[in-house]
From TrEMBL:
This is Ubiquinone biosynthesis O-methyltransferase. It catalyses: a 3-demethylubiquinol + S-adenosyl-L-methionine = a ubiquinol + S-adenosyl-L-homocysteine + H(+); a 3-(all-trans-polyprenyl)benzene-1,2-diol + S-adenosyl-L-methionine = a 2-methoxy-6-(all-trans-polyprenyl)phenol + S-adenosyl-L-homocysteine + H(+). Gene3D superfamilies: Vaccinia Virus protein VP39. It comes from Rhodoferax koreensis. O-methyltransferase that catalyzes the 2 O-methylation steps in the ubiquinone biosynthetic pathway. The lineage of its organism: Bacteria, Pseudomonadati, Pseudomonadota, Betaproteobacteria, Burkholderiales.
Length: 238
């Protein structure tokens, strides 16, 4: 039987593996993730309280969000395909003594085949724009969450404003992110992500934009989804 093609871009994995040792440095290339993490965490926790829930964090990288959700009382499994990033995540969890937190090197599609309808909450943040087939990941998220459970996504819109702010501005002018972090063609419009979610059987419940002032370095949530945005979706109860 032919093995399924892995839904991952080797160049993307290599890109983040090279930076793996800097994941937990708040002044590194991952500084924006550290800065927006409290906003993401509070938004998720406000919609689907994390305490006592079984959570899967897809594309967890060095585990910044995974760690924060575990500290809210959730039982968290973070998955990624970057070996180096996962080693950093595991080491940090050990050093910090974070409870109920595990990591595993596996794809969303592979774990969906193993553990369908096993998680109360699934998060997939800043990951869809880095894979060849985002719709496949969205479907895996839908398969993994229990009926009545929540799936949260965050990604970047594809338009001229997003190109100027998220790529030219963030990567080439302000050097907030390494150059080449994002490819314009891989960015995803909200209408496209909404279509993927509906096709996977997920109902869109809430959208939020994430805005940034480069002068004050402040981030905040808003209704503006023109650049960075997040979706809260829910799988209908059985």
């Amino acid at each position: 039987m032919q093995q399924p093609t892995l839904n991952a871009d080797p160049a993307e994995l290599a890109k983040f593996s090279e930076l793996a040792h800097r994941w937990w440095d708040p002044d590194s290339e991952f500084r924006p993730l550290h800065q927006i993490n409290p906003l993401r965490l509070d938004w998720i926790n406000g919609i689907a309280p994390l305490a006592g829930q079984k959570v899967l964090d897809i594309g967890c990288g060095g585990g910044i969000l995974s760690d924060a959700m575990a500290r809210q009382g959730a039982e968290v499994l973070g998955i990624d395909l970057s070996t180096k990033a996962l080693r950093v995540a595991q080491l940090h969890a050990l050093e910090a003594g974070t409870p109920n937190l595990q990591f595993r090197e596996v794809s969303a599609e592979a774990i969906a085949a193993e553990q369908a309808a096993s998680f109360d909450i699934v998060t997939c943040m800043e990951m869809l724009e880095h894979v060849p087939d985002p719709a496949s990941v969205v479907q895996a998220c839908a398969d993994l969450v229990k009926p009545g459970g929540w799936v949260f996504f965050s990604t970047i819109n594809r338009n001229a404003k997003a190109f100027l702010l998220a790529i030219v501005g963030a990567e080439y002018v302000l050097n907030m992110l390494p150059r080449g972090t994002h490819e314009y063609a891989k960015l995803i419009r909200p209408s496209e992500l909404a279509f993927y979610a509906r096709a996977a059987g997920l109902a869109l419940q809430q959208t939020r934009g994430l805005e940034h002032n480069p002068l004050t370095r402040r981030y905040w949530l808003s209704a503006d989804t023109s650049v960075n945005y997040m979706f809260a979706t829910r799988k209908p109860a059985a």
